[in-house]
Amino acid sequence: MIKIENASFRYPVFQKNIRPDVGMSEIGGTIIKEKNRYYVEALKDLNITLKNGSRVGLIGLNGSGKTTLLKVCAGILPLTSGKITVQGDISTLFASTIFSNPHLTGVDNIKLLGAICGLRRRDVKIIIEDVTEFSELGAFMDMPVRTYSAGMRSRLGFGFATSLKRDVLLIDEVIGAGDLSFYQKARDKVTDMLDTASTIIIASHSVSVIKTFCTTVLWMRNGHIEAYGDVDKITADYVKYVKKRGAEKRSAIKGQIK
Amino acid sequence: MMNMSLFDDLASSLKNWRFWARFAWQDVVNANIRTHAGIVLYPVLAAIWIVTISILFGDILGADRDDFMAYVGVGYVVFTFISGCITASYSVFSRNLKIIQNVPIGIMNFPLRETSRFLFQMLLQCITVAIIFVATDINLTLQAFWIIPAVIFLIIFGLCLTLLFAIIGTYLPDLAALTSSFMRLLFFITPIWWYPGLRGGTRALIADMNPITHFIRLFRYPLLEGGPPPPLTLIMTAGSMCLALVVTLCLFAATRRHILLRL
Predict the structure, then answer these.
(1) What is the distance between the alpha carbons of residues A157 and A170, in angstroms, rounded to a whole number?
(2) Which of A12, A113, B61, B119 has its CA 20 to 30 A from that of A53?
(3) DSSP readout, B180-203?
């Protein structure tokens, strides 16, 4: 379970030469000035409770606060105010570039990731078998990761993150690189995980990814929750909003050209 | 992990030895990954340095070459560890940014990784010193067991320096350039390849006031003189270690939650 109460987060800005038009744009958080210092308010007064077994999709424009929300949930970023309670262990999959050494093989990178998570050697051995089976990388598991495509890295990363048997899984923009067969396997894996009461949050710009993996959607806009609820309704509203926004931008540009 | 308490961060990081020990060893190996010699280069480069300095300065100082080589070897290994902990620590957090931003683990894991890296390097360089000891017929006495507390003191001091300079490097990056110049100066005022007693006066006083001198003496006395370290050395090393520990922990407690936001 994840309980978020009045959660706000600000990124401090250390540069002084900021344009004075402080305020809000459609993209990114709100730029604010306080005591001669600038901040980007990435999350503002969020309140939500995600129960065990939730499969939540995070959608929103760039800079709407999706990644920041995942990182404060994971405890990577400290909240500026408010409180987040996470029950259970967390596993994160935030970037397929997390593999620390592209010159090492897939197996060696899994060993390093296991070391980051403090896993014992025998547990890492089991995870390697699990990831090899899930990722279908075969001989590539013994090849340097630099020879992998983005999709192959996704398979490796997703395979590792979902093999950890943690209570909460947070994923940011990683699944999108996979192919159709990966989608199918990943969806089965996520369904299996939910049998052990896992909470899964997936941030993605792909509506099809969200529809495939999630049952509810949280739409983020300028650091606050725009909407939360049924996957079909919210994604439809979001797509409508994005299309309307695109049309307005195009007509504004046409007006300027005339 | 930024929402942990200070104690949780320290405890969970110390417990997570699989991460920092493994990554530290990986760093040691990766540093020479494109060479054929690999990690063998550490003892080889140490040997080249120690032998060259011993030949060049041993005669000038009128020292016995065999004894002087062991003297330089011990000084070199201890100084290299401390100097590494200071000069390379500035970028510890920025070099680990990818992991800090993506994996919820204690921030103390990263100074532990860096200190372990220099400890592994030191152990590899110790192979050279061991060979010198055997080749020059230096007999160790039971007093050599003094190096056990000496190693513990050195590791704690090195870890404090690593964390201290990692925090300073995050908040005051301009100081990095000054530190490398300062370390060059420190190299000359630390008795690695000269005897403080030979010169006397101000130079000996500076050497006595330099804590690194005493950390080197902590190893030299039991290994080379066959006796325990002098009381002044014990006081200086224990004092430096305690001071570094208190200052570093206070600074870490005050800054740790915001380190990631500064990177």
Answers:
(1) 12
(2) A113
(3) HHHHHHHHHHS-SSS-HHHH-HHH
For residue A115, which residues of chain B lie inside 8 Å, CB to CB? 18-19, 22-23
Whether ipTM > 0.90 holds is: no
A227 in a structural domain = yes
Given a contact cutoff of 8 angstroms between Cβ atoms, the answer to whether A116 and B19 are in contact is: yes
Show the domain range for B46.
Answer: 6-28+38-262
CB contact under 8 A, B18 and A75: no
Count up the domains in chain A and report the number.
1
Q: Is residue B1 part of a domain?
A: no
Which residues on adjacent β-strands are paired with residue A73?
Answer: none
Q: Is any Cβ of chain A less than 8 angstroms from the Cβ of B30? A: yes
Task: Tell me the HSE value of B112 on the side-chain side, using a 13 A CA sphere.
Answer: 21
Please tell me the distance in Å from B48's CA to the nearest CA on chain A. Answer: 30
- What is the pLDDT tens value at each position of chain A, 258 positions in all? 899 999 999 998 887 777 656 555 667 778 888 888 888 899 999 999 998 888 999 999 988 999 999 999 998 898 999 999 998 888 887 765 555 678 889 999 899 888 888 888 899 999 999 999 988 999 999 999 889 988 888 888 888 888 887 888 888 876 666 677 877 887 787 777 766 657 889 998 888 888 888 899 999 998 999 999 999 999 999 999 998 887 777 777 777 666
Identify the residue whose tokens are 């032998």. Answer: B51
Question: For the domain that residue A107 is a member of, what is the CATH number?
Answer: 3.40.50.300
Name the domain count of chain B.
1
d(CA B69, CA B53): 8
Of A11, A12, A115, the CB nearest to B18: A115
Could you tell me if B171 and B252 are in contact, meaning their C-beta atoms sit under 8 angstroms apart?
Answer: no
Task: Return phi, psi of residue B217, to 5°.
Answer: -65, -30
Structure-token pair, residue A99: 């593999």
- Per CB-CB distance under 8 Å, the chain B contacts of A92 are 102-104
List all residues 6 or more positions away from A6 whose beta carbon is below 8 Å from its beta carbon.
Answer: A45, A46, A47, A81, A82, A83
* Residue A119, in any domain of the structure: yes
Residue B221 DSSP symbol? I
A91: number of Cβ within 10 Å: 24
